[in-house]
Amino acid sequence: MKYLVMLCDGMADYPIDSLDGKTPLEAADTPCMDKLAANSTVGLIKTVADGMKPGSDVANLSVLGYDPKIYYTGRSPLEAGSIGIDMKKTDVSLRCNLVTLTDEKNYEDKTILDYCAGDISTEEAAELIKFLAEKLDSDEFKFYSGVSYRHCLIWNNGTLDIGVMTPPHDITGKPIKEYVPKHPNAQKLYALMKKSYDLLKNHPINAARVQRGLRPANSIWLWGEGVRANLDDFREKFGLSASMISAVDLLKGIGKFSNMKVVNVEGATGYIDTNFKGKADAAISEFKNGQDFVYIHVEAPDECGHRNETDNKVKAISMIDKLILTPVVAELEKMGDFKVLVTPDHPTPLSLKTHTNDPVPFLIYDSRKKIKGVSAFSEKSAKTTGIFIEHGPELMTQFVKQ
Fold first, then answer.
1. Can you name the residues that pair with 238 across neighbouring β-strands?
2. CA distance 62 to 394
């Protein structure tokens, strides 16, 4: 038996006027999802428990069967593991976004124009983080580069008692005055953020980006604090050899800490320009090479939601269906019995440009069973079935063991 998870990050949404009252999932061209849904168990699942932040960290752990209330230690440690940082028990790691701020004189008077600095390239970002490390690294703080705008700061003998550290994608377009770190223990972190602006605003990389009409990565923004992560071995937990395919360090970190095989795909970016075909080819290769379980994570719908890009979100969902799900399912049909789980991790509504903890639709297809499902896979059709999984981590057990 082969098991495929198609995780469409942030795919769920609300009806959009410009889409004639449809959600992006309803508006997208998804013949493969719809064909599976017609013969699948379809319903809603609450991946983020009440009282927890609706981040991709919490939600993906939940989908993978790891109860965040037990296993979650913060977002950044998962990413740090992917980057290759061997955190000590006394370390605190923080996500370090490269962002674009406006140019008011006082730092706190600035506004976040872009939480990802125009989706800066990994190569450009690496130079900027290296420059910050040369200027700001110390016995207490060290910078590490990741992918695109996503990087890491390690705080030696740090503390989690630092108050609220707001994700920048939650406050894009808003003045930062109300969101800068205010807790006394976070003032060293805030000082790094302010120093980073002074160092980066005139950096040659940014000067060149501005000349090309691109947004500069003129500041860091720190958030997602946590301590070293420890996840149970996925194979020991579910009895399956597993592979993780993703462009982002967060999912690669989850894969690493759960002892999955982490597969890197050339050209995978985390946005709509990602290598969709490469991810499909990688998944097919993993199955042919003997892996039982493959988790394909695609970030593009989430990024489009954060950027309020309606057409691109619809396009991203359509491309997932056509370029990943369709060819992988076609290959699985040649291999024997298989199961497919399709779901978002959380909604990223275009109207809000951030995550919510609303329940999301899921489908579970089992090639061995004939099940009367729904005519099309969507938020609305999933609700009509009356099937609701309130405790997110139960989904993986149901998918694998039933």
1. none
2. 8
Distances (CA, A) of 397 to 40, 65, 164, 278: 16, 7, 34, 29
Q: What is the pTM of this model?
A: 0.88
% of the chain surpassing 90 pLDDT:
96
Residue 31: how many CB atoms within 10 A of its CB?
13
Q: Which domains does the chain have, with CATH numbers?
A: 2-73+230-401 (3.40.720.10), 83-226 (no CATH)
Number of other residues whose CB lies within 10 A of the CB of residue 277: 15
- Per DSSP, the three-state class of 360 is strand
pLDDT in tens, 337-347: 999 999 999 99
Read off the pLDDT of residues 316-336 as tens digits, 9 standing for 90 and up. 999 999 999 999 999 999 999
Q: Average of pLDDT values for 367-382? A: 96
Strand, helix or coil for residue 166? coil
Give me the residues paired with residue 142 across strands.
Answer: 154
| Count of other CB atoms within 10 angstroms of residue 303 | 26
- Tell me: the pLDDT tens digits for 136-169? 999 999 999 999 999 999 999 999 999 999 999 9
Q: Helix, strand, or coil here: 163? A: coil
CB 245 within 8 A of CB 146: no
- How far is the C-alpha of 12 from the C-alpha of 362, rounded, in Å? 10
C-alpha span between 379 and 43 (Å, rounded): 9
